[in-house]
UniProtKB/TrEMBL annotation:
Gene3D superfamilies: Kelch-type beta propeller. InterPro entries: Kelch-typ_b-propeller, Kelch_1. This is Uncharacterized protein. It holds the Pfam family Kelch_KLHDC2_KLHL20_DRC7. It comes from Phytophthora nicotianae P1569. The lineage of its organism: Eukaryota, Sar, Stramenopiles, Oomycota, Peronosporomycetes. Residues 327-342 have a biased composition (Acidic residues). Residues 290-345 are annotated as: Disordered. Residues 294-306 have a biased composition (Basic residues). Keywords: Kelch repeat, Repeat.
């Protein structure tokens, strides 16, 4: 017989990672090796921290490094960024817990010596909090899409050149994203993608793309007005979620929606196709609690806006949570229709798991321009990704870090609960081997291959009845 490897539908698997770490939100967690990440800062409900922890994903161990560092560390903070560039960790901005404005300082941790440095800069970026910072190796620069400064929401773009340690304001073309904070971003090739956030009035679920070669912004067309046979509903508007790139896809998890309601849903975006990939939670014997989760349901809109197809599963007791974010002004919103619909279904005994199809209705919370596609332009819809295992609960202000083939989600908060649990999402499909048994004719042909077209045995002829004979008899 022979073993033939096959590629099954991609399966993502959640697993808890124990032991737990410190209970904080709005911290940072940065991958520094193939199996380690550094966590810095955060808020625990009482005060800001400036502790530095190392998580070894392979050994499943936490280790505090604060006492092993040299130099003067940054003050405790939350809502900052920690960007890895050429074996240095750049800590920028955040809330310090006092004063009307966010921090504007920059600190650098040299990883090889664990030495803190506060470099002198030729120019200052200005206060920033709940911003994003991504390192573009080709430019040897960290691109910062500024969020809030404590007084207003911003959408300016700045670059820190790490060799000269100079700030420059980047002049861009195209239509820039609206001012916002608590958004997320990720680099895919030469493109910087920005998703969601809070603009001072509402949460967002739009996607914008910056071509870092031409520094040109472009918006991704709203999927609500394209052929519903091939498109999956985008996430509900949110802030405080995470977005991480793994291979050629973006993984978005959690965040807070209207009235600071927390989510525990997973969404996958394919930048090459400009479309969302459907995810389906799989209930197995090892994760019966998955029945309580509404992962696919939350990736759909209310039936007043769309008509997805539904699968019905039993759900014993749904529990809703809320989240207190970093900016108090975020929570003066009224409940919108999406939230009312979701709450109305939270108390039902049956859970509806949507498959993610939408009709041609539109959501005003997404400011992207509408787009029409012809049948020839519509890409083929991908097979759904299967998600197995019990994943993280509702949360926002957490981190999601790519370590090797896994996504590591840690911490965050939901309401007054500050979380210290850690989960991994394994993105590699399990290998599957199929056993192929050849026919008797093929087996005989293989066994006697050396005698075929051979002069010494040219007088041998084979007939069908030989297939029933023992090879020794032949």
């Amino acid at each position: 017989c022979s073993l033939v490897a096959s590629s099954p539908r991609m399966v993502l698997r959640w697993e808890p990672l124990r032991p737990a770490g410190p209970a904080v939100k709005n911290h940072t967690a940065t991958a520094v090796s193939a199996h380690e990440l550094l966590m810095f800062g955060g808020y625990d409900g009482r005060r800001n921290h400036n502790t530095l922890h190392l998580l070894d994903v392979t050994r499943r161990t936490w280790r505090e490094l604060s006492h092993e560092t040299r130099g003067r560390p940054p003050a405790g903070r939350n809502g900052h960024t920690a960007t890895l560039a050429e074996r240095k960790l750049f800590i920028l901005g955040g809330w310090l817990g006092s004063g009307p404005l966010a921090a504007a300082d920059l600190h650098v941790l040299h990883l090889d010596t664990l030495t803190w440095e506060q470099p002198e800069l030729t120019a200052a970026l200005g206060p920033c909090n709940m911003h994003t910072a991504d390192y573009v190796a080709r430019l040897r620069s960290i691109l910062v899409f500024r969020g809030g400064d404590g007084r207003e929401y911003l959408n300016d773009l700045h670059a820190l050149q790490i060799d000269s340690m100079t700030w420059t304001t980047v002049r861009t073309r195209g239509r820039a994203p609206a001012p916002r904070a608590n958004h997320s971003s990720a680099l895919v090739g030469d493109d910087l993608l920005v998703f969601g956030g809070w603009d001072g009035r509402q949460r967002l679920n739009d996607i914008h793309v910056l071509d870092t070669r031409s520094m040109t912004w472009s918006g991704v067309a709203d999927e609500f007005r394209v052929d519903t046979r091939h498109y999956v509903t985008p996430p509900l508007p949110r802030a405080g979620m995470t977005m991480a790139r793994h291979r050629d896809r973006l993984f978005i998890f959690g965040g807070s929606g209207p009235s600071a309601k927390c989510y525990d849903d997973l969404h996958v975006y394919d930048p090459s196709r400009h479309q969302w990939v459907e995810t389906v939670a799989v209930v197995t014997a090892e994760n019966p609690d998955e029945l309580k989760r509404r992962q696919s349901f939350r990736s759909s809109r209310s039936r007043t806006r769309s008509q997805p197809r539904w699968d019905i599963y039993e759900d014993e007791d749904q529990q809703d949570g809320s989240w207190s974010g970093n900016d108090a002004e975020e929570f003066d919103e009224d409940l919108d229709s999406d939230e009312e619909f979701e709450d109305a279904h939270s108390d039902r005994e049956a859970m509806m798991v949507a498959q993610g199809l939408v009709n041609d209705s539109c959501d005003s919370a997404n400011p992207n321009e509408m787009c029409e596609f012809s049948d020839a332009e519509i890409p083929k819809r991908e097979e759904p990704l299967l998600v197995v295992g019990r994943g993280p609960g509702r949360r926002a202000g957490h981190t999601c870090t790519v370590v090797d083939r896994m996504l590591v989600i840690f911490g965050g908060s939901c309401g007054a609960d500050y979380l210290n649990d850690c989960f991994t999402l394994d993105t590699d499909p399990p290998p599957r081997a199929s056993v192929s048994l050849p026919s008797p004719a093929r087996m005989l042909r293989h066994a006697l291959a050396q005698y075929v077209n051979c002069e010494e045995f040219a007088d041998i002829s084979f007939v069908s009845y030989l297939f029933t004979l023992n090879l020794d008899e032949v």
